[in-house]
Design a protein that fits this description.
The complex is a heterodimer. By secondary structure, chain A is mostly helical. Chain A is built from two helices and no strands. Chain B is mainly α. Chain B is built from five helices and no strands. In chain B, helix 1 (4-37) packs antiparallel against helix 2 (41-75). The longest helix of chain B is centred in the middle third of the chain and has 35 residues, at 41-75. The radius of gyration of chain B is 20 Å and the shape is elongated. The A-B interface holds A 1-3, 5-6, 8-13, 17-18, 20-21, 23-24, 27, 31, 38, 47-49, 51-62 and B 4, 7-8, 11, 14, 41, 48, 70, 73-74, 77-79, 84-87, 89-90, 92, 100, 103-107, 109-111, 113-115, 117-122, 124, 126, 145, 148-154, 156-157, 160-161.
């Protein structure tokens, strides 16, 4: 959140709206993939609980 | 409107919190790598015992400080919180990283308990992966802050054009 406000960074302004820049679409797809990955990992048993259980068993195993 | 000097002061606090957060993650990553590659189980155990307090003492406070100061900074600056895509993405990245960090605290607590139990800890790749991913997220946020790629959200566009329409 820079102090300087660049007028050139305001974005494209078409008559019907600002339009969605290409970098935003790429970021949105990457974010969706990331969220999907997290959901899949959580549903497949990867998560805080699994790690905690695994960690607590280390002392027994060793 | 907030005075420029106050905005700059808030920006300094936000940058300091963000730098502190990246630094704390870098320290965690370095320790996690040491624990993963070491052949000495005692060293790995010592690292797993210290990762949790390090996270509570530095990662969590700095992450919340970066989030809160970032929101305040955006609200008192012309950029706004949801007017520009780059600010919005930074907010999403920050919230996501804080949420994952808080969830991962349970894992770190588990590692710490196991290491404190007296047994030797098994090296785990999990802290390495999570710390590396966190650094990548924060570097993306840093790049967005520096380059400020253009793009108004629909809400930001309306905020910009409606005063102009009213003045006609």
């Amino acid at each position: 959140m820079s102090e300087q406000f660049d007028e050139g960074a305001r974005g494209r302004q078409g008559p019907g709206g600002p339009g969605v820049p290409r970098w935003v679409k790429i970021f949105a797809i990457a974010a969706a993939v990331l969220v999907a990955l997290v959901v899949v990992l959580l549903l497949s048993g990867h998560g805080p609980g699994r790690h905690a259980q695994a960690a607590s068993s280390f002392s027994v195993l060793w | 409107m907030v005075k420029p000097a106050v905005r700059r002061g808030l920006l300094v606090v936000h940058i300091a919190a963000s730098v502190g957060w990246i630094g704390a993650i870098a320290a965690s990553l370095a320790l996690a790598v040491v624990a993963f590659v070491t052949t000495d189980p005692a060293v790995a155990g010592a690292v797993y015992r210290v990762l949790e307090p390090l996270a509570w003492a530095a990662l969590v406070p700095f992450s919340f400080a970066a989030l809160v100061t970032g929101v305040i900074q955006s609200l008192v600056s012309p950029w706004g919180l949801i007017r520009h895509y780059w600010v919005l993405f930074k907010l999403v990245l920050n919230v996501f990283a804080v949420a994952v960090l808080l969830l991962y605290m349970q894992t770190l607590a588990g590692f710490a308990r196991a290491a404190a139990g007296g047994g030797a800890a098994v090296p785990s790749l999990s802290p390495v992966v999570h710390a590396a991913a966190a650094i990548v997220l924060l570097l993306i946020a840093l790049v967005l802050s520096v380059f400020k790629p253009r793009g108004l959200t629909t809400w930001g566009y309306r905020r910009q054009v409606e005063p102009a329409r009213r003045s006609r």
